[in-house]
User: Fold these one by one.
Assistant:
Number 1:
Amino acid sequence: MKKTLLVLAVLLVGLTTLFATGAQEEAAATETAWTPSQPITIMNHVAVGGAMDLYSRKWVEIAAKYTDATFVVDNNAGASGLTAGEWVLNQEANGYTVFALAPTYLDAVIQSELECSTYVDGFTFIYNLMADPYCVLVPETSEFKTFQELIDWARKGNVITLSEPNYGAKYIDAVQVFGSIEGVEFKAISYESAKNNFAALLGGQTVASVGNPGDTKKYAVRALVIGNPTKVPGLEDVPNYKELGYSEALDNISMWRGYAVKAGTPEGMIKWFQDLCDKVSADQEWIDYMAGNKLTVLTDKTEAFTQTVENEVVSTIEVLKSVDQISAGYKR
């Protein structure tokens, strides 16, 4: 009798374990499996025709090869990304709203001295799509043929006037670059858009501009230096900072662009979206499109992308404090 009871007890424990394991597996499968049942809005922080807007629309076009999901690319420009960011934060964390952002948004948060706990930590950064290196641009007709000529001119007592759009990431880059070069004085003048920025440069209101390699395709400008560890296709003759004898760290500051969702979004949706991003990033059409715009394809998911964002936040706070653009007491 005791032996029978012992066998029954062992069987009961085994069945309990089996059912528990099965329930856990079923719960895990339920948690990770996610299929969209309505259109997903990709909200851009820039206006129609802006860089991230164009890239998001191309991403959606290529994504259609791999999913039947419907995407709606929308725009909510204003306040350097804050308008779009706040809009996304006010939506439900149900997976049907994706924030298409760049460092400009973080810069705006910090410049406005908003709470990072809300405006940064309120997002889950799920996929970093690309890296767009910063460069120093001059008009094609400029007297400065090299970056060193510009620096030598400044060291003679001249002030480098720099145009930059939106008072954001490019301003930070200007401070990091020219602020690190001894004997150089510069003044950054911000314009509301890239169009206005380059109109000012080409109109002679500024000497140079901080921009990206792709700007050389859109405007009558040329790059004197590109802050990138490797050569940019089509601009192989343009040196980086290391080649010119400046800090190698300047070659590792670039504008990223990627996707985020409101914190609390289902893990299943995030995995589904990341898998789709992987497919698009590996698609030759996307690779060629990125190369044509002089961009580097990235595939950074949550952990790596979050670290990139955190580094951006910390460095931006340091830079803006160093030029008295935010209060000394502002904290992450």
Number 2:
Amino acid sequence: MASAVLQSMELTESQFSEIRALVKTTCGISLGDEKLQLVKARLNKRLRTLGLADYDEYINFLRCDRTGNELTAMLDAISTNLTSFFREADHFDYLEQMLKRKIAEAANGKSPKRLRIWSAGCSSGEEPYSIAIVACNSVPDLKSWDAAVLATDLSTRVLEKATEGVYSDERVKTVNPQLRSRYFECIQTRPDRLYRVNDTLRSFVHFSRLNLMGDWPMRGPFDVIFCRNVMIYFDKATQGRLVERFRELLAPGGTLFIGHSESLTSLKHQFRYVQPTVYEKA
């Protein structure tokens, strides 16, 4: 009996082709042939939760679900969300210097006290909260600014975690102790110490679910866009369209950060190269 159940949960190549075509159409993610076993491992749990016998039933369920809830659950299940506080620290060093220039421009009346930053693919919140820490720490009178960080992700699961803003001791180890004491509060002591980001950061960061392949309700302009280690899941044509949409939303001279495993070299674009993974709207 157990072997029959295990057999019923197999994902064939044709079933995988249908699922990855749906994923590509919905959110632009390209799943290579090598992802079959990963998708199977993650979606088997969905089949068990729904009480479905095999992937033919699951695919039919996806097609008939007019609410779109199961499509969202499927995308949540197959999404990979690897992140940490101040990941790729050179980006945050650059952001700090950029903010100092913006402060000087505002002081001289050359620009308004306005700051908009978008964390696209924010995962469980470490990136946008890191951005908020840099902004709060760099701009002394930030409360007098019209400032906000928009943080979006495809996954509702990680957005719930991000909105909660609670992290284990292990997760906050990469945060400077002084910054940790200033922007986090310990809400649970040992042996399982937990930290929550404080109200200052929480009020500065606004989380929302967004499919990068769909419509974007925000109009910008943004001073900075972080889209790191997201485009690696897209084909070149999709990457090119996404980069152009980012450019349209950036203010003149605005900055785009991408991941260190990514590059715009093979794409046609109108950004000025600043340094590896850092580009400026020309």
Number 3:
Amino acid sequence: MKTAPAKFTIRPFESTDSDYAALVKLSNQDWPNNPSTVELWKQNDSKRKPKHLSRRYIGEIETENGKQIVALGFVSKRGLSEGSGKYNIKFRIDEEFKDHGFDEPLYTHMIADLANEKPIALKTEVQERHTYRVQLFQQQGFQESIKPKRYCQLEVSSFEVGLLAGYSEKVAASGIVITNVQKLKTYDSNWMQKFYDMDTAIEQQISNANEFKFMEFDEYIKMFEDKNFLADAQFVAVDGDKYVGLSSLWPDPVCKDLLYVGTTRVLQSHRRRGIATALKLKTIAFAQAYGANTIQTRNKVNSPMYALNMKLGFEPGIVLLTLEKVL
């Protein structure tokens, strides 16, 4: 790795158009299939809660035409509880300068700036293809903490039911009704509480019991008020009067022909009955009617949900590594 130029400097991010433009440029280099905009970043920042520590850093070099932004750093508090001492950390380097050694001084600066918060653990997510970033974090003592996640996508127009034909009928015959929030709102006055209770119960089943802390109900239901919330794209599996599974789609705020899988999950008591498959088939049918070209999702590699997505015809893409360091 080359040594960073002497005139490489680091400063706090400022809410200027030029800093936001650099943020968007470097973010879009990392995630070309999920482009963002200055307006979107500003909008999301306007909703950020001040109590949740979040810091950004700008790395610049001197050029003949003035200062040029070549790196970005991010530090944010992990989890829902204050004072946990656990933080997320990541950085982005301009592709043109990825071999100039900016990553190490930027990382060192962020860690030094975070020292007063007395962190006890750090976590980062790095794309596997960015080997130089992976190596830096490993050299600093970070280790993989969970299985890698792989992004994958389905070209909606090419989807064919094929071998999956009959799943929906089988699930329906077992007494499970697959509906959506738009319909639930018309006949179940308690739908929000039941939706929350189901999601909380599933999260408890899949999370570490010692670290589980789910969002409070009043905060959770704000999701239903989000302007991007599509009530007819939030599918729920219902057994009698109990909600037992869900699968949701969310629109991309920039790419109008792209939908994201928010989540697909089923209560432990109702797994291995084809419910997840039936839910996913509903989301694909919705995407086709919606006019979307692509559905994107991410799952832990080799997980049952990843295997289901492959069976549905999703194509594998970027692998994301999760690395953690206990201090």
